[in-house]
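Same chain as my last thread, 495 residues:
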Amino acid sequence: MHILFATPEAAPFAKTGGLADVSGALPRHLHDLGHNVAVIMPYFKMVRDSGASVQPTGDEFSVPVGQVPRKATLLRSHLPGSDTPVFFIQHDPYFDRDGLYTEQGLDFKDNCERFVFFSRAILEAAKRIFDTLDVVHCNDWQTALAPVYMKTLYADDPLIGKAASVLSIHNLAYQGLFWHWDMRLTGLDWSLFNWKQLEYFGKLNVLKGGIAFADSISTVSKRYAQEIQTSEFGVGLDPVIRTRAADLYGILNGIDYNVWNPEIDKLLPAHYSPSDLAGKAACKAELQKRCGLPQRPDVPLMGAVSRLDKQKGFDLLADIIDDLMQEDVQFVLLGTGDPKYHAIFETIKLDYPQKAGINLAFNNALAHLIEAGSDMFLMPSRYEPCGLNQMYSLKYGSVPVVRATGGLADTITDYSEQTRETANGFSFEEYTPRALLNTIKHALAVYRTPEWRKLMLRGMQQDWSWTRSAAEYIEMYKKTIAKIGKRHTVEARQP
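reply #2:
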């Protein structure tokens, strides 16, 4: 198949979150399965500053934004360790900025204009990249207008009009919501500004448009695909998502074992595997040393690497942290986020210097060391579309303690007497501080038994690689192409 993978960010070129990791890994694995894949994304300042080798293609073309033509320049690179091409849309007035979407915590005021331009530039670039195109795979609201354009302004295009569109939702909370007059920027007919398609309580909702028009919709776990059809997790879009339930897929993200693997991880002081765990003890000692904690091999050490946000369960963790510190434990935290949680955990660091190692920063090397050096990994998320850290933790033998939501529910089987031969972690359903604390105490009780080693090894031996996930995406593409082929055949028979 010939696949254009459209994304606002991809590692290692530009990243704000997990989407970049997906975009840097999935296309490479699709390519390894024998498909012709190209990635396309904006040429942000972060891309230029990444030091990546980016070459001009010599292609320039015009993209209308409203009635105003804007120049787009097409650049080219490739994903590291692969010959999978990555194309960049350069338009410096939109993308040559320090942030990707925000500045000092606030959205850029012209975000609608910027990503209207990018969504349409995706399709114009496709005509210069491909002679044959089967699938345009879009990701999140920043590319969600592309499926709308494919069914409207580009419906008669000999290349674009025949391609299938897929929209992946990585986090439904981010929808691209703008004032209604921004509809003029899209170049689309105002008739589409209605409650079934692009209108949302009087505003323009870009993601809603993508959901309404894409041939298939996917999200990043089976559980999250179910959750977003409910009022609790649908963030206002559950009615339109329910109308597309037959076209909705849940495909769990994979992880890259070339990067996240304790047997080869270059960021660790020692390597280890299920057959030889000695290196994990060395990693734990180094983590304790680096965080200023006593180097005790016997103490259960809990780690967390996260954005400090209510979504990630930090309201629960903040409520129980003092109670937790009364136990014989150590806790290491890495992350930044809400200033309220910064203040709470800075205080915990001062109150419990022998037990709490708090690092309010971004540090990739320390993130790897926390995965390797921890005995347990905490992810008590309110909601979690997929989650990657729990899968990293399994590989590193750091037993996850999670809330059973989204991808956390799909990957972690709670330990109990009934599941002792299949469990790989600990989980709880009720979103309360007490449920979290009780689950941690349960994990601590098991930690002091021979069962713990079995639990660790079971997780380390599981396969959460991209190879498995990529094969599921291929199946979705095939079904989508078959579906639109039937649709085109039916349409062709109409008088």
